[in-house]
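QA checklist item 7 of 12: single-chain prediction sanity check.
[x] sequence parsed
[x] length recorded as 231
[x] structure emitted
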Amino acid sequence: MNIHQLFQLQKLDTEIDDKKKRLGEVLKAQNEPPALRAARQRAETAVAELQKWQTKHQNLTLEVNSLNTKAKNSENRLYSGKVTNPKELSDLQHEIESLGRRKSALEDEVLEALVMVEDAQAEKTAADEALETAVAQWDKQSAHLKAEQNELALALHKLMQTRKTRATTIDATSLQEYEQLRKQKHGLAVVGLRVNMCLGCRTTVSANTVKAVDEGRKVYCGDCGRLLAAL
């Protein structure tokens, strides 16, 4: 078993793992962010609210116009001289007064609705501007993420090709043991030995272990169980 070759393969695999992890983060980050979703929801709500008050204002205005028409017709009958029956004249007078009261109340509602329309329009304008800003920011960020994604994909392709070539130089038994150890040790099968410290678990090893590692022999860390390689 050539520990140096396995150590170089481990460095390559670690770089591949890191880039795969980052690629996953970049892909996830390209989902529409909460801030943009919130801005979009605000804009949609503002449109619905504006339409609601515009419709109410329109309906109230139509109702006021209808009352005006009814009141005018009643007044025309009242003052036409054609109605002579006292009771009918009294009824017409009461109807006109009732229509007037209803019209006055409706006109207040019309004004209130108009104020709400203006407020809703202001909110829609603000929401549209906020959405436009959020979209512009996201487009810019998304472009950077897409560029990084392409760079990572290209780098990974090259690294995988290099790994494939490098793996062919290692005997099958050693490679199999290495792969099994990587699975057991969370992707880290071979670690460096700095002076007398295992860089996998940061524990100190004996002088004999250091000597064996320096000689290129197959040595495992007594604590974490990883293969040790001289730096």
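[x] summary fact logged: The first helix runs from residue 3 to 29.
[ ] second reviewer sign-off
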